[in-house]
Amino acid sequence: MCAEILLADGERLDEVNESLVLIQKKNALAFGTDAFLLSAFLRPATRERAVELGCGNGIISLLAAARGRFSHITAIEIQTQMAELAARNVTCNHLNERISVLEKDVRLLNAAALGGEVGVVFANPPYMRADSGAASPYGAKETARHEIEGGIREFAAAAARCLKYGGLFYTVYRPDRAETLFAALREQRLAPKRMVLVQDHPEAPPSMLLLESKLGAAEGLVLLPTICLHEKRGEKALSHRAAAIYETGIF
After folding, report:
1. What is the pLDDT of residue 25?
2. Is 85 exposed, middle or buried (CB count within 10 Å of its CB: 0-12, 13-18, 19+)?
3. Of 35, 187, 193, 218, which residue is the least packed, with the fewest Cβ within 10 Å?
């Protein structure tokens, strides 16, 4: 880790899994359960190059690199301040040889910008339509949550442009917008192959879904057992399965 990490106003330093440190902006979207579960959902492809779309502070790429999931990761971020923050986090964790941060609009991204097609693309895209929900006064948080700079259709299109035939696209999304997600994938010939729903406790409705899709594949979706984060309503302790995922970083 960095011997000395200088924090700017409005920043904090957190220790996270895999012995990583993470600089986070207090007024930007913080590292959460969806990002961690997506990082664990990524299957190892150690010979493949990977791309993260909309990396934010870089935490998913950091976790994937620390676990040796891919040969190299290019983390894409449109917001200058967040791209700079992701690059600082990469440097602070001595992962510069495994992760490159590229400030770019995913809507303009193609394989040529990456030096050729890649084997894996992953993203934690904005979940909310631009005209829905309460707006945040903080631009970074607003862009991360709402489809201001592109939504799942644009992210799926970018994935299809960057992936080689048979490449994998991983995403986390809201179950109540699953129809939008599947329509976006279908438009880009991305066939859903593996999915898991996540709920807070056994009596709660699912709050997120994790999905792996494959470019150019035939239909055939495997639905994995639902993950309950807690055994009972109101419990703070993680369920045995959720705790194992947090401890090992794998499903």
Report:
1. 87
2. buried
3. 218
